[in-house]
Amino acid sequence: MSETTIQDVIDTYNQILDPYISFRNNSNGVNPYKDIEFPSFYDVAKSELEKEDISILELACGEGINTRDVTTNKFFKRYVAVDISSSLLEIAKQEQLKTNSKTNVEFQLQDCQSLNLKGEQFDLIFAFHLLHYATNKHELLNFCKSASKHCKKKFIFVNASPFGTTLQSKDFYQKYGYRKVFVKDEMDKELNKTVEKEYLNVIEEPMKIKLELLAKEDHSKVTATFYNYYWSKETLEDCLLKAGFNRVLFHEMKVNEELSDIYHDYLTSNMLSVIEAIKD
Questions:
Q1: Is-contact 62 88, C-beta < 8 A?
Q2: pTM for this entry
């Protein structure tokens, strides 16, 4: 398997831009992001997000849905949001102007594996769905090191890990607006060879996942396809500790009781968790 290039990522998101944004904002009548992911993230991060005198760095901000949810009616002394896609950043900038945010958000075009922020450090760094774009351990460690380099206290992110969960058929997730296809594809051993010397006790390779977004009006129609790489919790923790964090905590996703029936299948087979990497 060849290493993913920056241009590969940019090209992918340019191709799936419209269906991706539609999916994120309203997924076939249900919205796991609004109902589960963001509330679960906020529950872990609220002790930081309720402060005003902090600096925040958001990685892979995309079209800015997280940016708007965090900053609406809030003031933070410094807020920088970065993404690798200029198209998504332009949307984020325009949508941010429509909010009641009291925070001046600075959007920057950046590769999260090699951030160029002139050594600036932030009290809180957060991200949604970033680390599972790492196709190999070298990329995964780069993501973690890049975050650690600019982090004063905490790096909190939502990420997927398939280990310890029951793998379902691709149609199982259809009612939530997407399908997951578990792809068996052996990683390029030569590419990972130099990195594996640092991982004597953690040798798992990622699970390759093909995600198919579905049309709202017709579940048989695929509107966009892209790939994720799910790493084990042990590997994620190992990379974060090697990158300079002192502790790593994994928090389960939660949902309000009135939505528990709607999201029962989602939660019982859910591979997502909120991960908190801490510098003491």
A1: yes
A2: 0.87
User: Pairing between strand 272-278 and 151-160?
Assistant: antiparallel
Amino acid at 140: L
- Check: CB of residue 80 under 8 Å from CB of residue 117: yes
Measured CA angle at 221 (ends 218, 225), to 5 deg: 135
- The residues, any chain, with a CB within 8 Å of residue 154's CB and separated by 6 or more, are 45, 48, 123, 124, 125, 276, 277, 278, 279
The residue that leads in pLDDT, 59 or 216, is: 59
Mean pLDDT of the chain: 84
Structure tokens at 93: 């900038």
**Contact between 75 and 102 (Cβ < 8 Å):** yes
Q: List the beta bridge partners of residue 250.
A: 275
CB atoms within 10 A of CB 40: 19
φ/ψ bin of 118: left (φ > 0), alpha (ψ from -120 to 50), beta (otherwise): left
Q: Give the separation between CA 265 and CA 219, rounded to whole angstroms.
A: 18
Residues whose CB is less than 8 angstroms from the CB of residue 240 and which lie 6 or more positions away in sequence, other chains included: 144, 148, 155, 248, 275, 277
